[in-house]
Amino acid sequence: MTSGGASIAAPGARDAEEQLFETNAGIEIAECYGPDDIRNFNPEADLGKPGDFPFTRGPYAGMYRTRIWTRRFQVGFGSPQETNERIKYLHANGANGFVITIDLPTSYGFDSDAEIADGEVGVTGVAISTLEDMEALYEGFGPDKVSYALSIRPPVSTVTLAMLACVAEKKNVALDQVIGTQQNDPFFQMSGGPLQTITQFFPLDGTLRLCIDNIEFISTRMPRLNWMVTNGYNLRETGVNAIQDGVFTLGHAFDIFRAAKVRGLDVNSFPRRASFFLSASIDFFEEIAKFRAMRRIYAHTMREQFGATNPECWRLRFSVQTAGNTLTTQQPEVNIVRAAYEAMAAAFGGAQSIHLCSYDEGHGLPTEESSRIALRTQQVLAYETGVTKTIDPLAGSYYVEAMTDRMEKEIRQGLAELDAQGGMAEAVKSGWLESQINQARYRNQQALDSGRRPLVAVNRFTIPKEEEKPVKVHKIRADEWGARRARYLAQFRAERDPQSWSGALARVEQAYKTNSNMVPVIMHALRAKATMGEIHDAMRRAHGWEGRQV
Amino acid sequence: MNPKRLLLAKTGLDCHDTGIITVAQTLREAGYEVIYLGLHNGVKEVVKAAVEEDVDGIGVSYLSGQHMTQMRRLLQAMRAENLDVPVFCGGVIPGSDAEELRAMGVAEVIPPGTLSKDLLGMVARALASHDAR
């Protein structure tokens, strides 16, 4: 009853009841779907059984009946000690998997006491500069017991992977028992779009090589550890649509797989632990169709193009985060509902792990309260709604199958276009991808301005600014965290053996030049108390890379 | 009258640029001359470019919580160079911080979900009131 009359429509917005019958990506939606829309539908070939080729119904037999998706909790701020305490608290409260976010200096391979880190230490995530820091993060947990997904990319992920291996060693956990995920996307971990951000502090060739070093080390030494192929999420967050999301995400993964094959890695082995990180956006059925179509394309491509014969290498597994770019700053409580719908699309799409954005993300970094609501929202979905109780419940729906076919067709067409650009790496280097992203960004703003895309609380059903309630915000203590970390690092450096430290860094340089796998060499350097920043400096020197200076 | 010139830039390590790139395009379409410096600028570089390009205003944006530190530095660097133009700050800025930023001298804080016509209104008003001083 409150819609329409009580609302103040933004001037220029369309009539609130006017509808556009197309998906967010612009696919036309018919009035009603029936048998004619899925005339060529062949359940056996197009769907298969859950856990069987082409995995449309889900990557595993049993799916959520066997194991409900992992309720991931994103955590990471300040020092490793503070983050570890928070993880212990959350673990005791029922979170069973953690995405560890990393602060920006660490994400770019700088120590907490580097000049460039000033004002950024511990802000967006935890600071990790030393092996001791990683040990502190795992205090009280074995790396074979608790699953951390480290939100990090090469070159830095090569160092954090080496740290994780060292932690396992110290805790007497065999490397082949270590679980968790190392995000390992060379391109899209840093906010998705710009080439500049991935080439600002490290040479791109080096980043790509270290990505393959990680895959090689993980697939041969740490077979239970997942590595993320593509951070499709961050890419999607730039504003591209669901079709482009599927194209760029899969195209990028296949590019990396080709590079791994060139390295001599076995296509029946290394993709087993490959995984994807995807966005669930607000267009409910389009997102479900996207997830199902992506699994099908992946299965066919891995079997038919890559020639994988191991069924484990055919199945696409993914974690989901609800779409941050669908949240509003205005009337923020409404975001709880958005995230709930998006999470439901992820569940119908067969996600292996789900994380919900907090309702206050348009105002600042999430608070403990808003994070808890986000976790509770998906606990309601998992335990109360019953969506977990049968597998792929939308299969056979005229609309969902027609839309899944259509998404598959559109994504395949896009993949062919991407191949014509020379693949993802080339499309990134040439700026083609960035121009696609920039066009999407501007288009999205125009769609909001014109009201073509309805957004509750922004271009429909707005309230005066005075009526907006203040939102509690996460307190940032960057100065305090920075000062404390600087004191710690000064002491850490003072207490090490200079000779073994400098010898270990010389070995890093040497190995980098001779194209050895860097992970074991970096493990050695970490044991000799070399820091994150020093190891990166050594690799930059070895590359002969002057770098751009801030 | 010549079109107004605006300098847009990201400073520090934050690389979320969807907002600022969209704003740059919106301003260009509305007739402004926009110079976008890209990511990872130091505040001194921003001020230097603003002086050299003789711009009428500066726009920056933050998503990852660096806004207070970075804005303090930028405003200080502007004072050091006697650069007096309106500064616009976009992005994810908590309400209490937005008030503090305005008190520090930031002309407008522009939140996510701002429609283009509102953005253009804010920019035009701030530039006009600065000219009128």
How would you summarize this macromolecular structure in one to three sentences?
The complex is a heterodimer of chains A (550) and B (133). Chain A contains 20 helices and eight strands.
Molecular structure report:
The complex is a heterodimer of chains A (about 550) and B (about 130). Chain A has about 550 residues and is of the alpha/beta class. Helices cover about 45% and strands about 5% of the residues of chain A. Chain A folds into two domains: about 425 residues, TIM Barrel (Alpha-Beta Barrel); about 55 residues, no CATH class. The N terminus of chain A is likely disordered. Chain A starts with about 40 loop residues before the first helix and ends in a 7-residue tail after the last helix. In chain A, helix 11 packs parallel to helix 12, helix 18 runs antiparallel to helix 19 and helix 18 crosses helix 20. Chain A has an eight-stranded parallel beta barrel with strand order 1-2-3-4-5-6-7-8, surrounded by six helices. With about 130 residues, chain B is an alpha/beta fold. Chain B has a single domain, classed as Cobalamin-binding domain (Rossmann fold, 3-Layer(aba) Sandwich), CATH 3.40.50.280. A five-stranded parallel beta sheet of chain B has the order 2-1-3-4-5, sandwiched between helices. The relative contact order of chain B is 0.18. In chain B, helix 1 links the parallel strand 1 and strand 2. In chain B, helix 2 crosses helix 3. Classes of the chains: A alpha/beta (about 550), B alpha/beta (about 130). Chains A and B meet through helix 4 and helix 16 of A and helix 1, helix 3 and helix 4 of B.
